[in-house]
Amino acid sequence: MENKFSFAKSLIKEVAHFIKEKMNDSLDIEVKSNYDDLVTNVDQEAQDFLIKRIKDHFPTDNILAEENNVRHPIDKGAVWVLDPIDGTVNFIVQGNNFAIMIAYYEDGCGQFGLIYDVMNDLLLSGGGSFDVYLNHKKLGNYTKKELNRCLIACNAGMFANNEYGIANLVSQTLGIRVYGGAGISMMKVFSQEILAYFSYIQPWDYAAAFIIGKKLGYTILTMDGKEPDFTSRQKVMLVPKEELATLKQILDIKEM
Amino acid sequence: MENKFSFAKSLIKEVAHFIKEKMNDSLDIEVKSNYDDLVTNVDQEAQDFLIKRIKDHFPTDNILAEENNVRHPIDKGAVWVLDPIDGTVNFIVQGNNFAIMIAYYEDGCGQFGLIYDVMNDLLLSGGGSFDVYLNHKKLGNYTKKELNRCLIACNAGMFANNEYGIANLVSQTLGIRVYGGAGISMMKVFSQEILAYFSYIQPWDYAAAFIIGKKLGYTILTMDGKEPDFTSRQKVMLVPKEELATLKQILDIKEM
C-alpha cells in the first residue's frame, strides 16, 4: 500500500502540472446538466491522463471517475476514485481555488485519499494506515470548539433556503463561507479553519475526504444521517463526530 | 507623493510582520456591537503601531481608523484611512484570509490605496497617479464579460434575503462566493476572479478599494446609487462602471 500511496502523491503533482500547462491555452467549455454545471476539455484530458497512468502501473485496478461515465462500483476490488478538477467553475472563472482529488478503495474499504489545491500548492494526503499531512505538516484530530467561535462552509442554495435548518445552525456560529468547491472546503475543515461543510455532491467529491476524515475524527453522512451511497449525487455533511449530538439538536434531520 | 506611497508599502509589510508575531500568542477577544462583531487586542495594537509610525513621519497628517473612534473627516487635509485587520472573524477562527488596508486622501481626493492579504502575501497597491500592482503584476482595467461566465461575492445575509434583488443577479451568474472579508473579496474583484462585491461596510473597509477601483474602471456606490459617505456603515457595491447599466436592469435600485 506504501507503494500505491507514493505513486498517488507523485501522480497528483504530475497531473497538476499538466493542468497548469493547459491553462495557458483557451478552454473549450461545455454545459452538462444545466447552465452552471460546466466541464472543460481540461477536465476530460486530465482524467484521461490519470486513468492512463494508473492503468500503466496497475492494469487490473478499476476506476470510478467524474467524466465520461466511468463508474466501477466502490465495493468491488481495487478502485481508484478520481475527480480531475473539483470546482470547475472556479477553474474557469478564477483560474484558482480548484482541486484534484484521488481516493483509493479496496472492496469498499478506504485506503488513502488526496486533495490537492493546485494553485496554492496545498496537498492534503493520508487516511487508512497513513497519517494525514497538509504538505509537511501532520494534522491532528478535531479539537473541541464552541459553536459561537466557528465558521460553516456550505452550498449557497442550501443555506439560503435554510434546508435541514442549516441557516439556523449558521446563526449560532460566526457565519458562513462559500468557496465554490468541495475539495478546498473540506481541506479547510480538516485544517480546522471551518467546523463543518454541507453540500449536494457526487461520490468523487467526497471519496477522498471520507477516508481522510475517518482518520481525523470526522464523518460524512447524508442529511438524513446515513452513510453516503457512492453512486448518486446526495446532500451530505462533513462534521466532527464529537459534534454530531450538538448538531442534531439544531439541524432538522430525521435520523442520525 | 512617491515618498508617501513608498512609506505606505513598507509600513504595511512591517505591520503584517507585527501581526504575524502576535498570532503566536493567545488572543484577547472582545465583542463589539453584537456577538459576531469581534475585536482582538491585535487589531488595536496593530492600529496603534500604524498610527505611531505615520505620526512619526508625518506629524501633521490625520487619521480615520477602525478602532477607538479615531475619526478625522475624509475631506479635511491629509488623511490616512486605516483598517488594521479586515476580516477579524477569519483572523480569529482561521488565522488566514484577513487583510490590512491603508488609504491616503488629500482634501477628500484619493491618492493611493493598499490592500494586503497577509498570510497569502498578496499586496494590491496603487490608484491616483500610481499604476495598480498585485505584487509584481500590473493589473489592467476591467475587461467586459458575460454575466453567465461570472461570479459574485456578497455578504451572506444580503444574498439570503435577496436584498436589492442581489439573489436575482446571482441567479444569472455562475454563483456566489462568501469569503468573510471586504479586503480579500475586493482584491478578487480587481484581479477579475469576481465580477462585483456587495456588502454592508464601513469607510475603512472601502477607502482603499475606492481609490484603486477608480483607476481600474470600477466604482463603489451605495445600494441607492450614491457615493458612499465615508462616515457611516452603508450597504455598498463595488462594480465595473461598464456593467452599471446591465446591473441596474436586474437589481432593485431606486436611483443609479
Automatic annotation (TrEMBL), chains A, B:
Parts forming coiled coils: none
Domain of life: Bacteria
Annotated Pfam families: Inositol_P
CDD domains from the UniProt entry: IMPase_like
Name of the protein described by the UniProt record: Inositol monophosphatase family protein
